[in-house]
Design goal:
heterotrimer, A alpha/beta (about 700), B mainly alpha (about 220), C alpha+beta (about 250), B: globular, C: about 250 residues, alpha+beta, Ubiquitin-like (UB roll), Fumarate Reductase Iron-sulfur Protein, Chain B, domain 2, two-stranded antiparallel sheet, 8 helices, about 35% helix, about 10% strand
Amino acid sequence: MTDNPQTEQQVLVEAEAETMIPETGSQDASAAQAPVSAADGYWIDGEDIADTKADLSQPIDKMWQHRQFSAALVNPANRRKLTVIIVGTGLAGGAAAATLGEAGYNVLNFCYQDSPRRAHSIAAQGGINAAKNYRNDGDSTFRLFYDTVKGGDYRARETNVYRLAEVSANIIDQCVAQGVPFAREYGGLLDTRSFGGVQVQRTFYARGQTGQQLLIGAYQALERQVAAGTVKMHTRHEMVELIVVDGRARGIVTRDMVTGKIQAHYADAVVLATGGYGNVFFLSTNAMGCNVTANWRAHRKGAYFGNPCYTQIHPTCIPVHGETQSKLTLMSESLRNDGRIWVPKNAEDCGKDPRQIPEEARDYYLERIYPAFGNLVPRDIASRQAKNMCDEGRGVGPAVTERDHDGNEREMRRGVYLDFADAIKRLGQKAVEAKYGNLFDMYQQITGENPYEVPMRIYPAVHYTMGGLWVDYDLQSSIPGLYVTGEANFSDHGANRLGASALMQGLADGYFVLPNTINDYLAAGPFEKVDDSHPASQEALTSVKSRIDKMLSINGTRTVDSIHKELGHIMWEYCGMERWEDGLKTAIERIRALREEFWTNVKVTGVNEDFNQALERAGRLADFLELGELMCIDALHRRESCGGHFRGESQTEEGEALRHDDEFLYVAAWEYGGDGAQPVLHKEPLVYKAIELKQRSYK
Amino acid sequence: MAVTGLLLIGFLLMHMFGNFKMLIPDDGKEFNEYSHWLREFGYPALPHKLFLWIFRIVLLSAAVLHIWSAAKLRLRANANAGGKRYRSQKFMEKSYAARTMIWGGILILLFVIIHILQYTAEVLRFGYDNPDRSLAPFDRVLAGFSEWWVVLFYAIAMVAVCMHVLHGFWSAFATLGANASAGARKVLKTLAWIAAALLYVGFMIPPVLILFGVIGR
Amino acid sequence: MKVTLRIWRQANANSTGQLVTYPLDGVSEDMSFLEMLDMLNEILTERNEEPVAFDHDCREGICGMCGVVINGVAHGGQHTTTCQLHMRSFSDGAIIDIEPWKAGAFPVIKDLVVDRTAFDRIIQAGGYISANTGSAPDAHATPAPKREADIAFDNATCIGCGACVAACPNGSAMLFTSAKITHLAMLPQGQPERYSRVKSMVAQHDAEGFGGCTNIGECSQVCPKGIPLESISQLNRDLVKSLFKGDGKAS
């Protein structure tokens, strides 16, 4: 069930952990007879909620225009009196900081890296979607909207997605004006390519480094504002707490990662643009530093967490090599444009040199099962089929030791071929090199194999989290004054994100949406001054310090990484590509035990007043250990399959995801229940007026 | 740095061609006349030795500016990357000449001083020791280079000069913006090799021929 | 495989550092270089010793956060970033020296971590195109010739890791600066600020204390993104031209 091989140490640790699990009925298989409900004690049902900012009486294509008009404005002279904190400098955060700075607000911008240019948006490879219809292939705002909602398996909020499609074209204009060197054709105009889940060519790209180029564009705009004095940049600062005063988000507490200084910063509004939480799985394509701490701290202070279980497992990553692996590397989805995915028809061929396996003995399974979309089916489907092929014993590459669902050890090959032989024959090696050269080089560097000669081996890996803090149409969370943008919010991708849509969302939120909605809130400001003497600030500062002191004082026997790896293993096994009720219950118990172990037996060396990377990681892990449980509870309560959330109990006869719109057509917005208490489930019913609900089909 | 460097390289080329006059088998007549002409150029329209002095001043200021820029560059480099940086520093580019420009430059400066003391000021009189009599230029050269160790000294000093030119020639053009493409880089580096080799061979022909008695009276 | 590491340990910017030797056994050749350091740090933590501090983030060669001098060569000399370097590049029993970037303008923060904010300030001096959000014309309004657009892209791939400075015997950051100059100079959108940009960025480069360029070429050799020396010549061309342009902007 996993491609995540265990170390002997991990196995041992797990055996220990298992003995620590308290005897509960939830481990009993018979508990699965009645559908799980709040009565089982995992959560509490709360009131339904709704987005109040989008006016549903408007036609969908007029809604954004209408909202911009109805939102209160702040005149330029008053903007100078208002301060906005933005945490994160990726596409969503950097773009927002630059844009709000240009507008004349005082922006305080924070990132944990040494420069805003390092944010993990930089690693996005393939491209960015935009409904420009430069190809004349029938694209339109509505089609991009439709594809995105369908790709998200009808679990996204229609109004937000339409707006996303609407502003997508402006993003390309903005980026070109900033000097983003998109790929061009000989006539000097922009080139586009196709991406998974769609039948038009609307993806703009800059070789395999689109995210880098877009981020550098936003970074340069941001640095321009730093020079202009409107943005004050705080690098190597990690947000460790949110300050809420009289129900409004008014500031954050940061730890200076060089000196250890704990400091509060205040503003009239706070924006979190802190990305996703894929690192809860330990192994993911996220950067090592990506974390959920900012979001989780906000969640604990009252921000609802939307759909935490929606995670995207990306189909084309380099397979795991061994137990000391620290991260997984993505091979851009764009490779599926020209590469063909296959496994041997017969399990006996799996150990052979792929070049010796004749054409008729290969199973191009995506082309076989989904003739209309072929290798370009959405990510969730491509991933699950790769898993299915390997589960059938037809995986390729070296066998790795893993544990199945019942905890038995086994040897499995976890990989499928992504073959460019046809493309090289058709286009020539030169053309393939021009398109994918840097990806091929990266593959060779990591695996030591030459993909021009031997087919690449790929396997799915955790890549993106569709879930995130719940926000309304204005991107405001359930805490007034707290805004959440980009991957950190839940709003646009439903249960599955289409390729080249994350960059689109990050920049849409940062450049065009937030700067036109946050004014509605700020117009009532400036709010009453807050400083360190305020009880809310005191509470936040003290809790941060005592938490750090606690972590440093435990001095147990387990390193932060060893606990993190164990958490990742639990998450991948039970809350990964396929989820079952009993497994999720097991996972919840194990995570609780592991969290207990963390707080009693972790070893964090050094002191706070120093550059202390172990302490940074410990703080992040502590929050992952709480988030992981909520993800499992969310996955447990959603007894349907949709997009990246595949519940084993809910599948069609062909093994495709089976939604239950009658029961689950809603966003699960979780309210923090308190330490050790159950979270409260608020449902935001999803209203589809512009799009008809259908069972997704890519056949 | 680049402009003054190119001026100095230009001077070296002129100097080399001037030296070739020694190859004319006329007992140094042409060479001596050339030396004389350098002093009297423009005379009588211009005062005696004026041209020579203008020439000397231009050269000297080029050299001074060149050294001044070098010192400035060096100080900046030392401030930012001075001292022993890495335990086992390795270099990826074949850049020995480039990395040792400052040392090459200092060697060249010392050499030029000796060279001027020997042939212009006649303070150092290698191969002849009469303190009262000034020799004709051609005879000075003959006297100096009939000593094997003088030739050896010049041969070594010229290695420093040509290594300096090898990097300096290409580097000056690159600094002036001529390194516009990979192709241009190849051309510039090839030209630098040619210039350095030409200077070495050109400057070493007369001394070697003198040492072996091919040139003489 | 077994390796002997000699790692630069330095408590902070004000203390002096030194190389400390750590033997490490059980290294797999499939491990990345940083995973090997992770392994060492796990062992050090278990022994109650302070782990080695090193910068890293994406571990896929694009964020530019990682970077150490390995056996005297920035990023280890495989034309990649440190994170993309794998242990199969080393032989069993190898002695590996690991040191931070050393340059006055990059003060050491701790162990292998240095402060590279000087790069941000060079960008702040003009490494951008002034285009406020919302003011852009249609993306196809101005075609850009493919050749120039490709050169712009090649230069825009700079990840700001600082290897060029670490390798340059002069400690010059000209390759970094010129990559940005060239990126923006090759695009039609970059023309209006072209000459004021080069002046102010070079002035900031010098003010940060970086050394001057003497065209040695070490920078380009260690650049994980292969930024060519030609970019510096492009900067120089623009700088010379800028002397003849009155742009109204202080340099």
